[in-house]
Amino acid sequence: MKPFQVLVAVVLAAFLAGCSPIARHPATGTVAGQAVDTTVDSEDAVRYLQDPACRPDEQADPYDRESLQLLSERRSVDFAAAWFAEALYRMPANGQAQDAFHDAVQAAAGPDDHRNWLLVFVPGYGYRRNPETGADFARPREILQERGYRTLLIQTDELGTVEENAGIVSERLRELAADESQVVMISTSKGGPEVALALGELLPAEESAHVRAWISVGGLLRGSPQADRALRWPRRWFARTVLWFKGLRPGIIENLSTPVRRPVFDRLRWPPHVLMVQYVGVPLSGQVGRKVRGRYRKMRHLGPNDGLTLLADELVPGGIVVTDVGLDHYYRDPDIDLKTIALVNIVLEELDP
Length: 353
Prior knowledge:
Blueprint: H1 3-16, E1 25-31, E2 34-40, H2 43-50, H3 65-74, H4 77-89, H5 92-107, E3 118-122, H6 138-146, E4 150-153, H7 162-176, E5 183-188, H8 191-202, E6 211-217, H9 225-230, H10 235-245, H11 251-255, H12 258-266, E7 275-282, H13 293-299, E8 320-325, H14 336-351
Parallel strand pairs: 3-4, 3-5, 5-6, 6-7, 7-8
Antiparallel strand pairs: 1-2
C-alpha cells in the first residue's frame, strides 16, 4: 500500500471509530410531560419511559456533565437523557414554563399586545453560506413579523470567532440602548456563547439594562466535543485541510473546543435583570436526525447530547429550561413555527404579564 493510501486509511479509521451499532428497543411513554414513541438503547430506558411510578431515584445532577456521563455508564445514554429532561421538569420554575410552552403550542395563539418589544436575533455559524440549517432565523423572524412582532438580526461575522462576534453584539446593543428599552435576545448554536460573553462580561450591567431576557436555542455555551475530536491527530490535519479547501477559517475548531469555551463561560457573571431561558432539544437515540447521527454516536461515550454538544453544557445556572424531547441540534419539527411563537410568547408573558 502506498504512503498516501496508508494515511487515508488511518484517517478513515479514526473517523469511523466509535460507530458501533446502538441497540433499538421499542418504547412508548411520557417524560417531562411529553409523549414519546421511539426506540431506545436499553431495557432500563424502556422501563423509565413506560412506568413513571417506578422510576428510580438517581443521585445525579442535570447541570453536571460528568454526573450525566456516569449515569449513562451505569444505565444507558437514553436513560440518562430521559432522566435529564424529567429532573429539570420537576423543578417548579422549569415545569411551569414547560407546561405553558406546550399549552401555547397546542393553542396556536398569536400575540396581540407585545409590539413594544424588540426581538434581537444572533445567528449561528455559517448562517449566510448555509441558510438551510436555519442558523439565520429567517423563517422564525418572518413568522413573528407576520404576527406583529418587531425583529432585528445582528449581522455577525458568520465565520468569526466567539470573541469577535461578542464584540459586535455588545456594540450593537449599546447602539440600541438609545431607542429601545425592552429587548429580548434570541440566539442559536454558536450565537449562544457570543451573547453569553457580551452579557456576562463585555457589557456592564448598566449598559445592558434594556435587555430583559435572553433565549438560548441549542447554545454551544461551553463548546463542542466535536471540535475537541477534530483537534486530535490525524483528525486535526484532515479537518483543517477540509476547512481550508472550503474557504473557511481552521481556527474556529480550537475556538469552539471545550478546553477554550468552558473556562470562559465559567468566569461570566450574569446581570440580575436578564431573564435567561434555555430551549434544549433532548433526542433519544431513535429520534436523532440523519444529519447529526454520526456525530451523536461519536459523543455517546460522554453522555446525553444533541449531536453537537452535551445537553448539560447548554444550561445556564439560574436560568429557566424548556426541553423538547425528540429534537436534535437542528430542531427539525413540523410544529417548529408554532413552537417559535409559543417560546417567545411565554417569555414575554413572564416579563409583561
